[in-house]
Amino acid sequence: MKIKFVVASLFAASVLTGCASTNVSYGDAQAVESLTKDFGSTDLQMIADKMVDDMLTFPVVVQLTQNRRPVMFVDRIRNKTQEHIDTESITDTIQNKLINSGKFRFVDMTAANAMAEQLNYQKNSGLVNQSTSVKAGGHIGAEYMLNGNLSSIVKNAGGKSDVYYKFTLKLQNIQTGIVEWTSEKEIRKSAKRSTFGL
Q1: Is the pLDDT of residue 7 over 60?
Q2: Which of the listed residues 9, 104, 108, 147 has the most CB atoms within 10 Å of its CB?
Q3: Per-residue pLDDT tens digits for 61-76
Q4: Is the pLDDT of residue 34 over 50?
Q5: What are the residues whose beta carbons fall under 8 Å from the beta carbon of 127, sequence distance 6 or more?
Q6: In CATH, which of 1.10.760.10, 2.120.10.30, 3.90.1150.10, 3.30.2300.10 is domain 37-111+135-193?
Q7: Which H or E run contains 19?
């Protein structure tokens, strides 16, 4: 009798669990996201838009890109916040916008090791027809580097929380070391913890 009861209970539990469902829907990727005060997609889009607009309209950069497309690479963005933030996603978005502007060309330093391994494989493995292998020494050197920082200040008091983000980006001439352009974007977000049941 006890065994029948246990089996019946397990069956009922599995039926109830199987009936539970999650509703999934698509949203607008460009819509304002404000679920928490943490760094989110809207912040990323605001930063990328501000940086690219500032850079492309800066007089020195306008002059640099007037008759040619300078080559640059993106150094890692240092995350100085207490959050786990994918800064590579920020730089990818900025890089995409700059490439699509038609003003710059980029070399991808994150893929440099993989390309070096492929060149070595083509040259030294003995498995690749040398008439079709890529010749070493043909890469274009970057003239400029983009790098920057993301920092934050967080304050909490009386159920309220305030976070201030500052993203700084600069364009540096690799040959001379001169910083040709720099800009920053500030974001402040506040949250108030609601009382349960209200």
Answers
A1: no
A2: 104
A3: 999 999 999 999 998 8
A4: yes
A5: 121
A6: 3.30.2300.10
A7: helix 2-19
